[in-house]
What we know:
The N and C termini lie far apart (65 Å). Helix 1 packs antiparallel against helix 2, helix 2 runs parallel beside helix 6 (224-234) and helix 4 (149-165) runs antiparallel to helix 6. The chain is of the alpha+beta class. It has a 5-stranded mixed sheet with strand order 2-4-5-7-6. A two-stranded antiparallel sheet has the order 1-3. It is globular and about 95 Å long. The mean pLDDT is 86. It has helices at residues 11-58, 67-101, 111-128, 149-165, 211-216, 224-234; strands spanning 107-110, 132-136, 144-147, 172-179, 183-190, 239-244, 248-256. Adenosine-5'-diphosphate is lined by residues 158, 162-163, 166, 190, 192-195, 203, 208-210, 213, 220-226, 249.
Amino acid sequence: MKSIKLKKPCVDSESKKLREENKRLKELTSLKTDLVSISAHQIRTSLSALKWIIKMFLDGDIGKITTEQETLLRKAFERNERVINIVSELLLANKTENVEEKQYIFAKLNIVETIESAIFDFSGEARSQDIEIIFLKSDNHEPFVKADKEKIRVVFQNLLENAIKYSHPHSKIFILLKEGKTEVEISVKDTGIGISAAGQKKIFEKFYRDPAAQKKEVVGSGIGLFTCKKIVERHSGKLWFESKENEGTTFFFTVPIYKGSK
Length: 262
Ligand code: ADP
């Protein structure tokens, strides 16, 4: 009987080609994500500037305006707010993609500077609701952590933004930085709406929003905390919270101390 020799499939070159295509696709996706991020940030910055200009007119800082002018300006303000929220959501969704796809660059980071600059970014938003942000830290020492600067900033920003969003007007938010032997613990405490007992089990699930938050009618997507948890865990840290409905919430996270160029 004649034996038939099967041709050996060219598995190696096929998988090499697939790997290269995959790499190229990842690079293209990363470029697109960066482009969306940069454009969205520029749009949001311009819209925020516009928001404060309209607000100055509405508050009478530029002079007296007529009722008709006020009605039109109020409409412009509200439309502008809506677009700012849409762009913010776009940024967050884009960031989630980033977090799962992108590389982490761990380096020495002054966490106090990161926190202070994020507080500064949100100070206008807090002031507009008469919310005071109080940062408590040791005066004489600024610890360095080992972290990816941009991603840790995303975590802190999300927690602070939530604390403002879910607080009542005329309240206070406390940010506390505690330095341990191996890690730094940062907490963000508010006295806002809190999270329901049932919701506390689901809060880190993608797209979950607590009924208490939905009632408050603030814009949200339920991806912020999901993203934060992923980022903190990639830093070998922990993210957790304590909350009581109608009393307030404190979120905590840890980041490792920088111990040299390892
Ligand atoms: P978003 O705020 O965009 O809805 P997040 O993932 O950041 O999404 O938060 C998920 C849910 O967790 C929120 O919808 C809200 O129900 C709850 N939550 C988060 N932070 C707070 C907070 N500080 N106070 C009360 N509820 C909160």
